[in-house]
Amino acid sequence: MHRQRRRAAADLAEVVDHLGASGEFGIVDGTEIRVRRPAAGRKDRDRFISGKNKQNAVKAMVVTDGEGRMLWCSPTRPASCADIAHARQLGLVTLLADGPAVEILADAGYQGLGAQTGRRVVTPPHRKFKKNAPDWYEEMYGRQRKAHSSRRIRVEHGIAHLKNWRSLARHLGRREHMSDIVQAIAGLLSHQQTADLIPAQQM
User: How distant, in Å, are the alpha carbons of 17, 20, 103, 149 from that of 144?
Assistant: First the structure.
């Protein structure tokens, strides 16, 4: 049976439509890229400090398919922008709520989007017991989180392929150029991964 050829989606709306038409699930995650520290005295200097890694960085949102192949990469934002806020700013909530029935796996940084998208965004389960949880609950909670993590781990592989490009190991040029650079590399990566599927489709 021939495998359906995946194409690089031009924008986020096309990614959602593509996943809806193919019946596949997608995986979303944010990734940070280190940049030079803004000059002293700049009003927005602190916006580039990552709350996670405490370093100067910009953030992009990545969407891959279930195999970790790159489907889309967003323009960059200063790293202080929370993952869930970034997703909302990019219009992901509206696209999913009004679009086809698709499943998008995400980590805990996107919790809250499930209710806003008709459960299309699936995040790890909330912990109902903060302390003194019964043993049966701890076991069930651990299984659920492990199962979710196992399904979405491929997005980390996609991000690793993206950041293997030397230009994104650490960007020392102008931050204003980062969006164009990241999206250009993501496009090249997606094209390469699509081309790699062609021999398998012709078997």
Answer: 28, 25, 17, 9
